[in-house]
Amino acid sequence: MSALILSDLTVRRPDGSPLFAPVTVSLPPGLTGLVGRNGCGKTTLLDAIAGRIPHEGTARAPGALRRLEQAPDPGLRIVDLFGQGRAWDALGRAEAGAFDDADEIDWTLAERIVAALSRMDLAAPPDARVGELSGGEARRAALAAVTFDAPAAILLDEPTNDLDADGQAAVARMLEGFGGVALVASHDRALLERADRIAELSPEGVTLTGGGWSDWIAARAAAAERAEAELDRARDARAAAGAAAEARAQAAAGRGRQGRRLRASGSHGKMLMDMQKQRAENTASGASRLDARAIEAADARLARAEGAIRPAVALRFDAAAAPLPEGRTVLQLSAAEAERGGRRYGPVDLTVTGPERLRIAGPNGAGKSTLLAMISGALPLTRGTCRVTPGRASLDQALAAPDPAVPLVAAYLARHPAATEQGARAALARAGFRGPAGDRAAATLSGGERLRLGLALVLGAPEPPELLILDEPTNHLDLEALELLETGLAGFGGALILVTHDEAFAAALRPTRTLVATPVDDCHVAFTEAG
Hints:
The protein has 16 helices and 18 strands.
């Protein structure tokens, strides 16, 4: 057996209901991308396969199975992530001359761990504590550890989150060189494009599609077309069943009226008329039962067809689409410098005018978010000046959770006190929250719905922002929310400053300029415009 085999695998909620229908699937060696809406149970499924949580059904791996540690204990050493803590300590004692049996010492351990870290472009010492590493470095260390002992299967949950372009490339190389079964939950479209197959998790279970991201998108579009066609056929069948039943009922009623006229005329014998009446009633009763069953079957078919349709949410932010005048200056940094953590950032000379789209790029820890803090005023300048339009907004702030009990209309009015309730409902409707949906509590929103609310609060404002700042907006979004975000921002007519490691997302927003953060040395970061 070389495949990872899941048989009737499911997990139950506290109320006893299944989180998703039992999953039965065989995953051969290669990369399987696991996708699905936030909250559908992707992480839970991986935990169940790894045996970390109670579950029903079975998961059989072809050998050793490893699960990527999402949030390792900061007190652990890198060697502990590799499962080699005791061996490392024994090696240390041996090198100090304090050991009993040299045959039990793995003299190559340090070399092999360093090589594994190097493949993930990480130069940290093996005995470094996780808490001493940056988020991206900790992720690289955990990824290096997961394949260290050549397991037969690995389970990864959003492995490229918090990683810059170099880190994402290292993950791609790792997966390409891995010969076992890799089941990877991800919204990274570049990574999913490399997949051998896509497994989509939904309440109905898992659906497998061969190929990568583009193949899955094409298959999803084809399935949507088939579902729409089936819905049309089901509606026609229901209408036909109802019309046939109505026609038979009217015909039976006509025959009944004719029989009553004949009986009243006395032209036929009473016995003959009674026999004909009974026969007609029996025929009508049988036809009525057949019609009822036909209508019931048509209703069931229609319900299934309607359930197979994925409702599309159309986002419209008309005011936000109005272009900012070309000559309007929304940001001007002049010889701006700041200090943070013993580092000097700048000087920066930057002017953003009109509907420009500026991407700030650079490796993890280079200072991209620091520059945003300089722009927003969260980090005071030590030299130079920063003039920025008061009409600026951050999508991160809009996505911050409002009071869970607050209705959406109230959340909008709290952010825009000058707005009317009618204006709030109109803005929410343009984001897909129509009618009573505007009275829902924020706590009831899914990940994609929270994003739509954030877009309504920012792009649907009475006065849309002249400058929108996005700092890694795609982290922790599912694919549906990613598509919504791209759609919502496509028509934004103001200036935009973007920090992201998601190349597909950046390409969709079409930046007009790129500013690169580059560490000059341990104490200085410079910002230069890409040619």
